[in-house]
Protein: Trans-2-enoyl-CoA reductase [NADH]
Organism: Clostridium manihotivorum
Amino acid sequence: MIIKPKFRDYICLTAHPEGCAINVREQVEFIKKQKHIDSPKNVLVIGSSTGYGLASRIAMAFGAGANTIGVAFERPAAKSRTASAGWYNTAEFERLAKEEGLYSKTINGDAFSNEVKEKVVELIKNDLGQIDLIIYSIASPRRTDPITGETYQSSLKPIGEAYTNKAVNFHTDIIQEVTISPASEEEVESTRKVMGGEDWQLWIEALSNAKVLSPNVKTVAYTYIGSELTYPIYRNGTIGEAKKHLEQTAKILNDKLKPINGKAYISSNKALVTQSSAAIPVVPLYIALLLKLMKDKNLDESCIEQIYRLMSTKLYSEEPLDESQIIRLDDLELRDDIQREVILQWDEINSDNIRQLTDIEGFRKEFFKLFGFGHQQIDYDTDINPDVDIQGLVQI
Ligand code: NAD
């Protein structure tokens, strides 16, 4: 198959197996050059195939030599369709982990279901005994509640009043004003059901009930707080409400984990181009501006750099970490000088000067790279087999 990018809005419908494999290899190479992370050995990553979750799995496997179980929800190739990027990423991760002699298994299925949780428990019992670290990195548009069977959709809307701001079509560089109507109470609640902490809590309870959590176990979930500029659509919007619920859940989990001296953390990460962030209204233009400002000051970090910093200087550093505090990996994004420039320049940006004032080109490159496109060393006119197996895959 000749595989070229085929996109609709902020979704790319195709992915390139070799391009995705290169992305994974680049992250592995980065992590191998860093100082060893002195961390526990058995790690579960929920949402392990792309973005922050993939970077977390790579950091723990290749930076700490950990055994990893990954949970993801990805699509294999079918007759006329490529697999999803996360499928190809996972295939390369598993190949490299095996090459390195590391234990790794991936469960491909709905992390929100009881079935997947039961399968993970069975795997831990059979293969690892106990888990030392659980990373929760799910971003999903919907969730079926495993108890009631009801399906909830998440939404990206302001709360209370309509929100108008500019947004870019990052394929054309055209900026237009968008108005997003406020969410109904039902939409706020549905988003909380999908992206709040309920499922994280169910995971920790399932693992705890099965007695597969090791003494001193740690768990971390990722949140985003962001700039005042995006507060109406993010922090003070439906997704922000869900994230506040996730943050509250860390407190509940800390109480639950006390008897085994376990700790639950929230890490507030930097805004980065991922499949999820590209879908949030207004945010792509904010990220394009941020990319320019942070690159100019040599402050920009990728997913793998963020996660290496999290693991080596926060979660597994010698300095004791207070679990009641949110870990701030967004400190550089939110530095006063950066945010002052964001606010100053935002009003100036239009379709004519977007290439000068922001790094929209960098945003676009990062977006296509997520799907394995844009690598100089790949001839995208060459036929390639889209059907790639994942070693160690457990399909649910
Ligand atoms: P992403 O879309 O790249 O990754 C999402 C992962 O979740 C994938 O591995 C996917 O397979 C998995 N997933 C989705 N639904 C699933 C399901 N039902 N069952 C099993 N797996 C499922 O997203 P990301 O941007 O890396 O986000 C991960 C977390 O980090 C989210 O909580 C997000 O809010 C947070 N975060 C993201 C940013 C950002 O800018 N991207 C910033 C701060 C925090």
Remarks:
- The pocket of nicotinamide-adenine-dinucleotide is lined by residues 47-53, 71-74, 86, 110-112, 137-140, 222-224, 269, 271-272, 274-277 (CB under 6 Å).
- The domain at 7-149+186-279+300-334+372-395 is CATH 3.40.50.720 (Rossmann fold).
